[in-house]
Design brief:
The complex is a heterodimer. By secondary structure, chain A is α+β, with helices and mostly antiparallel strands. Chain A folds into 2 domains: 63 residues; 93 residues, Immunoglobulin-like (Sandwich). Chain A has 2 helices and 9 strands, in the order ααβββββββββ. Chain A is elongated. Chain B is mostly helical. Chain B has a single domain, classed as Cytochrome C Oxidase, Chain A, CATH 1.20.210. Helices cover 73% and strands 0% of the residues of chain B. Chain B contains 16 helices and no strands. In chain B, α10 runs antiparallel to α11 and α14 runs antiparallel to α15. The longest helix of chain B is centred in the first third of the chain and has 36 residues. Chain B is globular and about 60 Å long. Chain B starts with 8 loop residues before the first helix and ends in a 7-residue tail after the last helix. Classes of the chains: A alpha+beta, B mainly alpha. At the A-B interface, α1, α2, β5, β6 and β7 of A face α2, α8, α11, α12 and α13 of B. Bound molecules: protoporphyrin IX containing FE (HEM) and copper (II) ion (2 copies).
Chain lengths: 173, 484
């Protein structure tokens, strides 16, 4: 799962960061000539910068190809189910909520009043994908439902009093 | 180029009193707003039961209050150090103080009397469409309050900007642009001037955009037939919000640049990498805001890609220049540890640490499953609780101890430790919630999510406890701090 990998990556990075800080704190006494320290540390910094740069290029390329967002201008192909979604304070109007396992559904999401966030959650309450529901605009998000089950739509953009209660069910057979 | 500015005794006294007023007010408001935060977390953990409308009012109060006071505290820190190099007017500092209080009164009235709960980001058209929960008058009071606060800041920045231009003959020169492109690097050009110029440029622009969008929204509130473009307004609001909250920490960091050299006896001079970092940060802080709109697929794809790429790049000056520079300066320096110097290092840890979850969430792919989850408060509480606040606290201690080594009284060490570990717990519980898909800004949580809320409520309580001790200590000592 993406979220778990991200969580682990974050924790590991934080442990490494803490280790560096603790190392420096532990070695903050024992005064040395600054120019020597600078020479050594600046040499490491060049490598550190190069590392950050290379990682940046690789990560950028790897995360953007293929482009992770549904093409907004291409027409949905014949075997894609198009479903219209309108967010309202505080309910979802979804013109078809029953699909079959394996279906690719393209949700055309907008709002009848304020901004909402259209997010699909699986049975274990894991967020699968989302897009914003904004008045006057239609955001398209495509999702393939691999497994049958009861999915839920939650609101991910604060929309007032019952924001947290703005739920809908999607059934995949 | 960098001889200190001479002030007379009266100016110094007025200046120092002003800074003390900023710092003490900030400590008190931070503490109060933390209490509000603990209440929110306790409600999400179902430790306490509050109606949703009250939850969202407190959430609006906590958000607006914290962002406002963070800007205020950051301005106080920047002003204190910057006045050594350019002639700043203590009267303008006080003017902003009272304008700020005026804005606060409006915002408090909007929330506590008018029931306004549109969140601090007042995302159009929610303030105008509450389904009867609050009136257009309440929304007006809230937005006017922000506008008033923004005006005060603009005046303060105007004074700073004029002073910088007078002294350095232009903002470009103050930022060190000529030195970036070939001119000989003058190591005596103050780091604080570079940072202050960056803050001035970005925050003036940000607040000006904020003023425009507030004026538009206010107009719409009373002339509803005059419709606004929701996507354009969202862009403007997040531009303003992103810049303003970022500027707080870029202001506060001058404390690190100024204090670590004093505690280590090593200079922190400008260099080409330093200037490149700040030059790049100036542009990036202005251009990176589309990472708040990654889930608005109708945005031009190039803007979203730019949001992702710049998010990553904006982390580099922090990780490779500022935090790295702080570590270099401390390593084998024989630094004198006291509460102030410890705070500076904590601040560097908090800023660098906050960059990590932020950058990860700034990638489109990850944002699809993290956007508006608890991951988001996780990353910014990291920056703010462990980055910005230690900068402010450190300056308080530095002044309270009359700029001498304050030693390591057990109360201060213990208070800082409790604060640090409490904040760490709070932050990790937020991030864990994000990894577990828990949405942010939800008054009531599903049962399986409540445990994290409970954990946070306890950790937040500890944070508050540590912070209260820190506040009390400085409340007693800071007013007696002596003039330079
Ligand atoms: C004891 C310390 C703190 C606690 C327990 C706390 C708790 C919270 C909670 C529970 C939320 C709402 C989370 C949600 O979206 O569901 C929140 C949001 C927020 N907090 Fe804090 N917080 C603390 C300190 C701070 C500090 C020091 C700052 C800034 C300097 C800050 C700034 C914010 C902001 C800007 C929001 C966003 C509000 C919104 O979503 O509209 N917090 N905090
Ligand atoms: Cu909604
Ligand atoms: Cu909502």
């Amino acid at each position: 799962m993406l979220a778990e990998s991200v969580w682990i990556l974050t924790l590991v990075s934080l442990v490494l960061l803490s280790a560096v800080f603790l190392f420096v704190i532990a070695n903050s006494g024992d005064e040395r000539d600054y120019s020597e320290v600078q020479k050594k540390w600046y040499a490491i910094r060049s490598k550190w910068l190069l590392f950050l740069f290379v990682v940046g290029v690789i990560v950028t390329w790897a995360t953007l190809s293929p482009y992770p967002i549904t093409d907004q201008h291409a027409a949905a192909d014949a075997d894609t189910t198009v479903v219209k979604v309108v967010g309202h304070q505080w309910y979802w109007e979804i013109d078809n909520t029953e699909y079959s396992a394996g279906d690719t559904v393209e949700f055309h999401v907008t709002s009848g009043d304020v901004n909402h966030g259209f997010a699909i959650y699986d049975e274990e309450d894991r967020l699968l994908t989302q897009t914003q529901a904004m008045p006057d605009y239609v955001n398209k998000v495509r999702h393939t439902f691999d497994r049958p089950g009861a999915y839920r739509v939650l609101c991910m953009e604060y929309c007032g009093l019952a924001h947290h209660a703005m739920l809908a069910e999607l059934t995949v057979r | 180029m960098s001889e200190a500015i001479q002030y007379d005794a009266a100016e110094n006294r007025a200046g120092l009193t002003g800074v003390k007023a900023y710092l003490l007010t900030s400590l008190l408001v931070f503490a109060l707003m933390m209490l509000a935060g603990v209440v929110l977390r306790a409600a999400q953990g179902a430790y306490i039961n509050i109606p949703p409308e009250v939850f969202y009012q407190i959430m609006t109060l906590h958000g607006a209050g914290m962002v406002g006071i963070a800007g205020f505290a950051g301005a106080g820190v920047l002003w204190y150090f910057l006045r050594q190099y350019v002639r700043l007017n203590g009267k303008v500092l006080w003017l902003n103080y009272f304008i700020f209080l005026g804005g606060v009164v409006l915002i408090l009235a909007a929330i506590l009397i008018g029931g306004f709960a549109g969140a601090w980001t007042f995302l159009y058209p929610l303030p105008a469409q509450s389904m009867g929960l609050w009136s257009p008058t309440a929304a007006t009071a809230y937005m006017l309050g922000l506008l008033v606060i923004g005006t005060g800041f603009l005046l303060l920045y105007l004074d700073i900007g004029i002073a910088l231009i007078k002294r350095y003959g232009g903002l470009g020169r103050a930022l060190g642009v000529p030195m970036m492109f070939g001119a000989k690097v003058d190591p005596s050009h103050p780091t604080t001037v570079v940072a202050g110029t960056m803050v001035l440029i970005v925050n003036f622009t940000g607040i000006a955009a904020g003023a425009v969008v507030l004026a538009l929204c206010l107009f719409n509130l009373w002339q509803p037939e005059y419709k606004l473009d929701p996507l354009l307004i969202k862009n403007l609001i997040y531009f303003f919000g992103h810049v303003f909250i970022n500027a707080t920490i870029y202001s506060g960091v001058v404390a690190v640049y100024e204090l670590l050299p004093k505690y280590t006896g090593r200079p922190w001079n400008v260099s080409r990498p330093f200037l490149y970092a700040w030059g790049a940060a100036t542009l990036m802080v202005l251009a990176v805001y589309p990472h708040h709109l990654l889930m608005d697929f109708v945005m031009p794809p190039w803007m979203l890609v730019m949001g992702q790429v710049l998010s990553y790049l904006s982390g580099i000056p922090v990780l490779a220049i500022t935090a790295y520079g702080a570590l270099t300066i401390v390593y084998r320096s024989g630094i004198r540890w006291d509460a102030a110097s410890a705070c500076m290092l904590i601040a560097m840890f908090g800023w660098a640490g906050g960059v990590i979850p932020a950058v990860i969430d700034g990638t489109l792919m990850v944002n699809k499953v993290m956007h508006n989850t608890m991951w988001v408060p996780g990353h910014f509480h990291f920056y703010l609780l462990l980055g910005l606040l230690p900068m402010v606290i450190g300056v308080c201690y530095y002044l309270s101890n009359n700029r001498e080594n304050g030693g390591k009284p057990l109360v201060d060490t213990a208070a800082l430790a409790i604060y640090f570990f409490g904040a760490m717990g709070l932050i990790l519980a937020f991030l864990a919630g994000g990894a577990d898909s828990v949405p942010r800004r939800w008054a009531e949580h599903f049962e399986s999510w409540r445990f994290l809320g409970q954990l946070s409520a306890v950790a937040g309580g500890l944070t508050l406890l540590g912070f209260l001790v820190i506040t009390l200590r400085n409340l007693v000592k800071l007013p007696q701090a002596k003039i330079a």
